[in-house]
Amino acid sequence: MPDIVPQCVSTNLLGSSFYTASLCFLFRVANSNKIPHFTAFGKGRLKMTRSRTSISALAFATVLFLAAAVSRAEDSPIAAALQPFVASNSLAGAVTFVVGPEGVIRRDAVGYADLAAKTPMNNDNVFWIASMTKPITAVAFMMLVDEGKVSLNDPAAKYIPEMNNLWVVEGKSDAALTLKKPKRPITLRHLLSHTSGLPFLTPLQMKDLSLLSVEDAVTSFMMNPLEFQPGEGYRYSNQGIDTAGRVIEIVSGMPYDKFLQTRLFDPLGMRDTTFFPTAAQLKRLPKSYGPDAKKTGLQEVSLPFLRKPYDRPDRYAEPGGGLFSTGADLSQFCRMLLNNGTCDGKRYLSEAAMAELHKDQTGQLQQHYGLGFAVNIDGHGAFGHGGAQGTNMTVFPERKTALIWLVQHGGFANNGHEAQGAFNNAAFQLVAKPGNK
Questions:
Q1: Is residue 370 within 8 Å of residue 193, measured between CB atoms?
Q2: In this structure, what are the phi and psi dihedrals at residue 398, rounded to the nearest 5 degrees?
Q3: How many angstroms separate the CA atoms of 265 and 253, rounded?
Q4: To the nearest 5 percent, what fractions of the chain are helix, strand and coil?
């Protein structure tokens, strides 16, 4: 077998230049004629194939290697902040991206994509981002608003006439359900801000978000009454976002997923963002974990609202929660938001459209939601969205920074729920340093 010597290139995956230099030193010494010769490198093991040895040289190289491993935490404050959660079995693993207007400031991967196999998390892992799909749908919708093809105050029934037949629940008991006609029509603004009165999900969607086409899903929504008068309440609603996705299809003349692909994903270079992951992409999907029965450790759990296999041919796009993506792809999307609708010289949204997206649209004291985005998250204009498996992306305009947090967790053990906050704090300290914007 030929000798295998790693390239001496410092990257975020290796941690620090000192760590990389130590690895290179170890392998160079190992290939000299004074110490054992090594012919393989994999999963942290070196295979010895010659017996000549210099104990002092090998010991020095080993000490240097271990010291370098410790130095990685100093080189990456984010990894240092998250490693205790992994060590306590409170967090399986995470991929984090810190993004500025010009590009990625820092990316880190900590912990494991597969705890049992000890497969490390990598920056190119693919995650089901679930409801982080909503803001992407909203951005696509606002492109049509910019083009004058729709208005946010249009009645939804202008595009989907069946919505004129919806009723509103006035009262209900175990014995009866009382309905009345809506006071006003549902508008496109209502759909995107969770103020339409449409419920969260249908029973079919609870089992599998990808079961029905966008058109068939919206048709099924017409079979149930609204939970409140349009514009007079707030109900987090995939049905509302899905209906907006159907309007995209009707107005653009394109399937919803094709519109996103051609107008957003391809131009932004979001190569791994898809409703239909391939077998190769699914190999990069981390296992999902949740707390065990004692809530002191983690156990593998299934992804909710989805039915395996995720690459079967009969799946459909779901505008409220169906996307898979990566940190690199979401960084491009966040850069566009940070730059108020532009990215790499291309304008995707007008400044007016951007303002509508992150303006509070609900009129509710306890619920701050714009169009597809949770808004004013920090009291200083931050906006973003999370996903069912713990993922999150948030744009902080005042800080000129976006933070992307990618995990696959259906709940956490111990203090694992504090891990995202630890990431945020470490990231803010990082970008506060001169030269990191």
A1: yes
A2: -65, -35
A3: 18
A4: 35, 20, 45
Peptide bond into 199 cis (omega under 30): no
Alpha helices in 200-294 (DSSP H): 203-207, 214-221, 238-252, 256-260, 266-268, 279-282
pTM of the full structure: 0.84
Which domains, from first to last, does the chain contain? 17-75 (no CATH), 76-437 (3.40.710.10)
CA angle 396, 398, 400 (to 5 degrees): 65
326-353 pLDDT per residue, tens: 999 999 999 999 999 999 999 999 999 9
Can you tell me the distance from the alpha carbon of 416 to that of 91, in angstroms, rounded to the nearest whole number?
A: 5
The rounded distance, in Å, linking the Cα atoms of 352 and 65 is: 54
Between residues 334 and 56, which one has the greater pLDDT? 334
**Angle at which helices 327-338 and 133-146 cross, to 10°:** 40
Token pair, residue 205, equals 């969607």
The residue whose two tokens read 């007079």 is 232
Name every residue whose Cβ is closer than 8 Å to that of residue 286 and which is 6 or more positions away in sequence.
92, 93, 112, 113, 114, 121, 125, 127, 407, 408
For residues 122-142, give the mean pLDDT.
98
Q: d(Cα 23, Cα 40) in Å, to the nearest integer?
A: 13
pLDDT for 65 equals: 39
Torsion over CA: 216, 219, 224, 225 (sign)? positive
Task: Report pLDDT digits (tens) over 87-114.
Answer: 999 999 999 999 999 999 999 999 999 9
Apex CA 430: angle with CA 426 and CA 435, to 5°?
175
pLDDT at 6: 30
> Chain-wide mean pLDDT for the chain?
87
144 dihedral zone (left: phi>0; alpha: psi -120 to 50; beta) = alpha
DSSP bridge partners of 179? 169
Biggest CA–CA distance in the chain, Å, is 90
